[in-house]
UniProtKB/TrEMBL annotation:
<dbReference type="InterPro" id="IPR009081">
    <property type="entry name" value="PP-bd_ACP"/>
</dbReference>
<keyword id="KW-0597">Phosphoprotein</keyword>
<dbReference type="InterPro" id="IPR020806">
    <property type="entry name" value="PKS_PP-bd"/>
</dbReference>
<dbReference type="GO" id="GO:0031177">
    <property type="term" value="F:phosphopantetheine binding"/>
</dbReference>
<feature type="domain" description="Carrier">
    <location>
        <begin position="8"/>
        <end position="85"/>
    </location>
</feature>
<dbReference type="InterPro" id="IPR036736">
    <property type="entry name" value="ACP-like_sf"/>
</dbReference>
<dbReference type="Pfam" id="PF00550">
    <property type="entry name" value="PP-binding"/>
</dbReference>
<keyword id="KW-0596">Phosphopantetheine</keyword>
<protein>
    <recommendedName>
        <fullName>Carrier domain-containing protein</fullName>
    </recommendedName>
</protein>
Amino acid sequence: MSSDTAEGTITPVRRWLVERVAYYVEMAPEDIDPAVRLTRYGMSSIYALSFCGDIEERYDIEVDATLAWDYPTVEAIAGYVMTLLDRPAEDPEERPETTH
């Protein structure tokens, strides 16, 4: 059994990430190796920031602007995103009150 199968939804996450990287570096998704550093494909800092925004929007999570440097491959980013998606939702009782 592959690690993708064992980890459940990491494959769709990884696939989507590969597609986004391919878009930014103007390559075919099948030419993106998830284990290769994004900088090897020419991912610029501006594209990396846009990529972070794409991830936040797609998965409704917050990621640091340094994500592509902290997790330099699609494989690493997919693993990190999965840890965020596996976290339980914030308990509304623990949220600080906001004033309007």
